Amino acid sequence: MVSRSTSGLSSAKSADGRRQRTQVTRGNIVSACIALQNEGSARPSAQQIAERAGVSIRTLFLHFPEKGQLTQAVLDELTPPESIEPPPAKSVLHGAVDVRVAQFIDMRAQALERMTPHRRASNAMIETSPLLQKHRLRVRKAFRDVVGQWFATELEQVSAEARQKWLVALATLVDWEMWQSLRTYPNRSIPEAKDCLTLLLKAALRQMEAEGS
After folding, report:
1. CB-based contacts of 67, cutoff 8 Å, min separation 6
2. What is the pLDDT of residues 71-123, one digit of tens each?
3. I need a labelling partner for 174 at 20 to 30 A (CA). Which of 81, 111, 160, 181 fits?
Protein backbone atom coordinates (compact mmCIF):
# COMPACT_ATOMS: atom_id res chain seq x y z
CA MET A 1 0.00 0.00 0.00
CA VAL A 2 1.38 3.43 -0.98
CA SER A 3 1.47 5.95 1.86
CA ARG A 4 -0.10 9.37 1.50
CA SER A 5 3.29 11.07 1.82
CA THR A 6 4.77 8.92 -0.95
CA SER A 7 1.74 9.51 -3.15
CA GLY A 8 1.91 13.26 -2.55
CA LEU A 9 5.61 13.36 -3.38
CA SER A 10 5.00 11.44 -6.58
CA SER A 11 2.21 13.83 -7.59
CA ALA A 12 4.43 16.86 -6.92
CA LYS A 13 7.23 15.41 -9.04
CA SER A 14 4.76 14.64 -11.81
CA ALA A 15 3.43 18.22 -11.72
CA ASP A 16 6.98 19.61 -11.80
CA GLY A 17 7.76 17.42 -14.78
CA ARG A 18 4.70 18.65 -16.65
CA ARG A 19 5.57 22.28 -15.94
CA GLN A 20 9.11 21.74 -17.15
CA ARG A 21 7.93 20.06 -20.35
CA THR A 22 5.47 22.90 -20.91
CA GLN A 23 8.23 25.50 -20.53
CA VAL A 24 10.52 23.58 -22.88
CA THR A 25 7.80 23.22 -25.52
CA ARG A 26 6.84 26.87 -25.23
CA GLY A 27 10.49 27.88 -25.53
CA ASN A 28 10.95 25.69 -28.59
CA ILE A 29 7.95 27.32 -30.29
CA VAL A 30 9.23 30.83 -29.55
CA SER A 31 12.73 29.90 -30.75
CA ALA A 32 11.28 28.42 -33.94
CA CYS A 33 9.38 31.62 -34.69
CA ILE A 34 12.48 33.73 -34.04
CA ALA A 35 14.58 31.53 -36.33
CA LEU A 36 12.04 31.69 -39.17
CA GLN A 37 11.70 35.46 -38.92
CA ASN A 38 15.48 35.86 -38.87
CA GLU A 39 15.59 33.81 -42.06
CA GLY A 40 13.31 36.31 -43.78
CA SER A 41 9.80 35.03 -43.13
CA ALA A 42 8.16 38.07 -41.54
CA ARG A 43 4.97 36.20 -40.65
CA PRO A 44 5.65 32.46 -40.70
CA SER A 45 2.59 30.23 -40.80
CA ALA A 46 1.48 28.08 -37.89
CA GLN A 47 2.47 25.03 -39.93
CA GLN A 48 5.99 26.36 -40.49
CA ILE A 49 6.46 27.22 -36.83
CA ALA A 50 5.09 23.89 -35.63
CA GLU A 51 7.32 21.94 -38.00
CA ARG A 52 10.42 23.90 -36.96
CA ALA A 53 9.58 23.45 -33.27
CA GLY A 54 8.83 19.75 -33.70
CA VAL A 55 5.28 20.00 -32.37
CA SER A 56 1.78 19.62 -33.76
CA ILE A 57 -0.33 22.61 -34.75
CA ARG A 58 -2.71 21.60 -31.96
CA THR A 59 0.14 21.93 -29.45
CA LEU A 60 1.11 25.29 -30.93
CA PHE A 61 -2.38 26.70 -30.44
CA LEU A 62 -2.62 25.11 -27.01
CA HIS A 63 0.29 27.29 -25.88
CA PHE A 64 -0.61 30.38 -27.94
CA PRO A 65 -4.38 30.37 -28.53
CA GLU A 66 -4.83 34.10 -29.20
CA LYS A 67 -3.58 36.18 -32.10
CA GLY A 68 -0.50 38.13 -31.16
CA GLN A 69 0.45 36.01 -28.14
CA LEU A 70 3.31 34.30 -29.94
CA THR A 71 4.59 37.59 -31.35
CA GLN A 72 4.47 39.10 -27.87
CA ALA A 73 6.39 36.10 -26.50
CA VAL A 74 9.01 36.58 -29.22
CA LEU A 75 9.37 40.27 -28.39
CA ASP A 76 9.51 39.52 -24.66
CA GLU A 77 12.33 37.07 -25.36
CA LEU A 78 14.29 39.53 -27.49
CA THR A 79 13.58 42.82 -25.75
CA PRO A 80 12.51 42.31 -22.15
CA PRO A 81 11.65 45.78 -20.79
CA GLU A 82 13.86 45.34 -17.73
CA SER A 83 17.03 44.84 -19.79
CA ILE A 84 16.80 47.38 -22.61
CA GLU A 85 20.18 49.01 -23.31
CA PRO A 86 21.42 49.17 -19.72
CA PRO A 87 23.36 52.36 -18.99
CA PRO A 88 27.14 52.27 -18.70
CA ALA A 89 29.19 52.47 -15.53
CA LYS A 90 28.83 55.59 -13.40
CA SER A 91 32.24 56.82 -14.47
CA VAL A 92 31.08 56.83 -18.10
CA LEU A 93 27.70 58.36 -17.31
CA HIS A 94 29.42 61.50 -16.09
CA GLY A 95 31.99 61.52 -18.87
CA ALA A 96 32.04 63.43 -22.13
CA VAL A 97 28.72 63.44 -23.94
CA ASP A 98 30.35 62.35 -27.21
CA VAL A 99 31.60 59.18 -25.51
CA ARG A 100 28.15 58.40 -24.15
CA VAL A 101 26.48 59.09 -27.48
CA ALA A 102 28.91 56.77 -29.29
CA GLN A 103 28.42 53.94 -26.79
CA PHE A 104 24.66 54.40 -26.73
CA ILE A 105 24.36 54.39 -30.53
CA ASP A 106 26.53 51.27 -30.79
CA MET A 107 24.32 49.37 -28.35
CA ARG A 108 21.10 50.75 -29.77
CA ALA A 109 21.99 49.89 -33.37
CA GLN A 110 22.71 46.28 -32.41
CA ALA A 111 19.38 46.00 -30.61
CA LEU A 112 17.45 47.62 -33.46
CA GLU A 113 19.00 45.34 -36.07
CA ARG A 114 18.26 42.29 -33.93
CA MET A 115 14.60 43.21 -33.47
CA THR A 116 13.91 44.33 -37.06
CA PRO A 117 12.25 41.17 -38.47
CA HIS A 118 10.20 40.72 -35.32
CA ARG A 119 9.19 44.38 -35.16
CA ARG A 120 7.92 44.13 -38.73
CA ALA A 121 5.84 41.13 -37.76
CA SER A 122 4.37 42.88 -34.73
CA ASN A 123 3.65 46.04 -36.74
CA ALA A 124 1.55 43.97 -39.13
CA MET A 125 -0.72 42.90 -36.26
CA ILE A 126 -0.53 45.64 -33.64
CA GLU A 127 -3.58 47.63 -34.77
CA THR A 128 -5.87 44.70 -33.97
CA SER A 129 -3.95 43.24 -31.02
CA PRO A 130 -4.44 44.81 -27.56
CA LEU A 131 -1.72 42.45 -26.27
CA LEU A 132 0.87 43.88 -28.63
CA GLN A 133 -0.30 47.43 -27.98
CA LYS A 134 0.23 46.97 -24.24
CA HIS A 135 3.62 45.39 -24.87
CA ARG A 136 4.69 48.30 -27.09
CA LEU A 137 3.66 50.86 -24.47
CA ARG A 138 5.46 48.95 -21.72
CA VAL A 139 8.67 48.67 -23.73
CA ARG A 140 8.59 52.33 -24.75
CA LYS A 141 8.18 53.47 -21.15
CA ALA A 142 11.07 51.26 -20.06
CA PHE A 143 13.21 52.60 -22.89
CA ARG A 144 12.45 56.23 -21.98
CA ASP A 145 13.63 55.48 -18.45
CA VAL A 146 16.88 54.07 -19.82
CA VAL A 147 17.42 57.08 -22.11
CA GLY A 148 16.93 59.25 -19.04
CA GLN A 149 19.77 57.42 -17.31
CA TRP A 150 22.14 57.66 -20.26
CA PHE A 151 21.64 61.41 -20.63
CA ALA A 152 20.72 62.40 -17.09
CA THR A 153 23.42 65.10 -17.01
CA GLU A 154 21.91 66.93 -19.97
CA LEU A 155 18.29 66.42 -18.91
CA GLU A 156 18.98 67.88 -15.47
CA GLN A 157 19.87 71.21 -17.09
CA VAL A 158 16.30 71.90 -18.22
CA SER A 159 13.10 72.43 -16.24
CA ALA A 160 11.05 69.48 -15.03
CA GLU A 161 8.32 70.21 -17.58
CA ALA A 162 10.79 70.51 -20.45
CA ARG A 163 12.65 67.42 -19.23
CA GLN A 164 9.67 65.15 -19.86
CA LYS A 165 9.18 66.54 -23.35
CA TRP A 166 12.85 66.13 -24.17
CA LEU A 167 12.87 62.62 -22.80
CA VAL A 168 10.04 61.64 -25.14
CA ALA A 169 11.78 63.40 -28.03
CA LEU A 170 15.14 61.68 -27.44
CA ALA A 171 13.56 58.24 -27.08
CA THR A 172 11.49 58.74 -30.22
CA LEU A 173 14.56 59.90 -32.12
CA VAL A 174 16.29 56.56 -31.57
CA ASP A 175 13.21 54.34 -31.87
CA TRP A 176 12.93 51.56 -34.44
CA GLU A 177 10.85 53.65 -36.85
CA MET A 178 13.65 56.20 -37.20
CA TRP A 179 16.23 53.44 -37.61
CA GLN A 180 14.12 51.76 -40.27
CA SER A 181 13.77 55.07 -42.11
CA LEU A 182 17.54 55.56 -42.09
CA ARG A 183 18.28 51.98 -43.18
CA THR A 184 15.84 51.90 -46.11
CA TYR A 185 14.80 54.03 -49.08
CA PRO A 186 17.61 54.54 -49.96
CA ASN A 187 19.36 51.54 -48.48
CA ARG A 188 22.07 52.59 -46.05
CA SER A 189 24.64 50.42 -44.35
CA ILE A 190 24.59 50.05 -40.58
CA PRO A 191 27.63 52.38 -40.18
CA GLU A 192 25.96 55.00 -42.39
CA ALA A 193 22.71 54.80 -40.44
CA LYS A 194 24.64 55.02 -37.16
CA ASP A 195 26.42 58.16 -38.38
CA CYS A 196 23.09 59.79 -39.25
CA LEU A 197 21.55 58.82 -35.92
CA THR A 198 24.60 60.15 -34.09
CA LEU A 199 24.29 63.52 -35.84
CA LEU A 200 20.60 63.73 -34.97
CA LEU A 201 21.11 62.79 -31.33
CA LYS A 202 24.00 65.21 -30.85
CA ALA A 203 22.00 68.02 -32.46
CA ALA A 204 19.08 67.34 -30.13
CA LEU A 205 21.35 67.32 -27.07
CA ARG A 206 22.97 70.60 -28.14
CA GLN A 207 19.54 72.19 -28.57
CA MET A 208 18.49 70.94 -25.15
CA GLU A 209 21.68 72.36 -23.63
CA ALA A 210 21.02 75.73 -25.29
CA GLU A 211 17.51 75.85 -23.85
CA GLY A 212 18.82 75.03 -20.39
CA SER A 213 21.53 77.67 -20.36
Report:
1. 125, 128, 129
2. 888 877 876 655 556 676 776 667 789 989 999 999 999 989 988 888 888 88
3. 160
